[in-house]
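Troubleshooting: if your tokenizer reports a length mismatch, compare your output against this known-good record of 183 residues.
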Amino acid sequence: MTDFLQAYPQGTILAMDQITLYFQATLTRVWARIGQTPIIKIAPQRDHMFFYGVLDVGRGRAIAVPSALQNQEVTAHFLRQVLFHFPLKPILLLLDRAPWHFGPDIRAVLEANSHLELMYFPPACPDLNPQEHIWELARDAISHNHTYTDFGLLLEDFETFLNETPFDIKFLEKYVPAILCEV
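Known-good structure output:
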């Protein structure tokens, strides 16, 4: 990462990941008065949607889009969307080693965009990916213990939260060099 910043001081470092959002509420601990057990109604549907997300680790801004599928073709399409937001700017994209992050569709995007460089996290290290923590914040704010009765509304609120929330740079400082947080 330091080599990239030295070679491209005005470059952008992005962290990418995917998540599956289920209509059934995910449960988490909550405070409640003694003797008053919180009740969360859970929808019986197993509806779900994948989300692709990327975080600009220097600015704390995310781009997230829903997707019915999660494969290398969809990943390549998402990469093209990300590149549209950062035209011709040098980009270092940090991502995990999911199978859909490799293959001919991904290589084609890389060959067509010499300003995009990929750097993979070590295996089994999700905590290193700042985008994982953005998912956690979105789940805490929107999908944990939710009472949505309409899956479309849950999807809309989840996507809106991700795309419109400026994520605190101080939160990101433990993941990226201080030089990025001064931008």
